[in-house]
Amino acid sequence: MWCSTVGGMVTLLLSLLAAPLATEAQQPKHVPRLGFLSAGSAERDQSRLVGLQQGLVALGYVEGTNILIERRYAAGQFARLPDLAADLLHLQVDVLIAGDAPAAQAAKEATRTLPIVMASVADPVGIGLVASLARPGGNITGLSDFNAGVIAKRLELLKDVVPAASHIAVLLNPANPTNPLQWQLTQAAAPALRVTLFSWEATGPDDIERAFAAMRQEPPGALLVFGDSMLGAHRHQIVALAGQSRLPAIYSTREPVVVGGLMSYGTNIPDLYRRVATYVDKILKGAKPADLPVEQPMKFELVLNLKTAQALGLTIPPAILFQADEVIR
């Protein structure tokens, strides 16, 4: 009788001790959740997010297994960004990735505490996102896609391909805080190339139509399209209008060239997105954005579309073909 009582007490004690351990073992492990905010479109950002996923995989993260990504796109409508940012904060994401300058500005206005990683912002210091590249100083860090030499090189390449172009139109979005810097640097490069620039502003598809209608009244010799999420989201429209106007155009990224644009020169954006993963990993492991310097681009790419060149009656100089990272035939 005594033995059975003692045995029962021992069993009860062991069960009580084991209960917290069992409960602890049943607690689900926290899976980090990333928020991705873009002023562009899902279609445009698809290849960029592939770069992010590749970078995460290299660091041991697999989407849907040990990390989650919530995506929100403004599709060129910058006014939607504050609500989209608020939506991601409501989901309690661990890190917010801002795909471009308008998204980064909306993210900063939405939170001063949640870590934010910029994927590709041209002038993060100039537009007030960080105190400096070396010491960001707040809850934002990441990557800049800006390189002053690229702006001048873009205009130079366009002039090399269309040497007769003395008047060049520039299509820009005044709502993008980085476009004024691009315009300033493009203007600075123009005199050495003996070209005169004319700027046309567009904040939406109707403005794009009006800009091209105005260009047809006094046709320029070529067109330079600035890097911007709204313009990128409407690249099919821009490329089609440039084709109808028989207007050689250069873009900042390869996506417009893939759908029929003549050429592009700029930062290799998917590479920046791969590097975003390193920031995410460090922050998830306890690093503070304020202590992580903003990095600049290391890879650039020239993309040519020979089908479009032929349709425009242009011959791409051999030296330019030799420089190309990708040629679409």
In short:
This protein is of the alpha/beta class. Helix content is 46%, strand content 17%.
Element string (H = helix, E = strand): HEHEHEHEEHEHEHEHHEHEHEHHE
The appropriate CATH architecture of the largest domain is 3-Layer(aba) Sandwich
Strand order of the largest sheet: 7-6-8-9-10-11-12
Taken together, the total number of domains comes to 2
Give the mean pLDDT. 92
Structure summary, number of beta strands: 12
Q: What structural class should be given to the helix and strand makeup?
A: alpha/beta
Q: Which word captures the global form?
A: elongated
Q: What is the share of helical residues?
A: 40-55%
Rg of Cα set: 25 Å
Specify the biggest β-sheet: 7 strands, mixed
CATH homologous superfamily name of the largest domain?
Response regulator
From the N-terminal CA to the C-terminal CA, the straight-line distance is 92 Å
- The CATH topology of the largest domain is Rossmann fold
Q: At the first level of CATH, what is the class of the largest domain? A: Alpha Beta
- Helical segment tally? 13
What fraction of the residues are assigned to beta strands by DSSP? 15-25%
Low-confidence runs: none
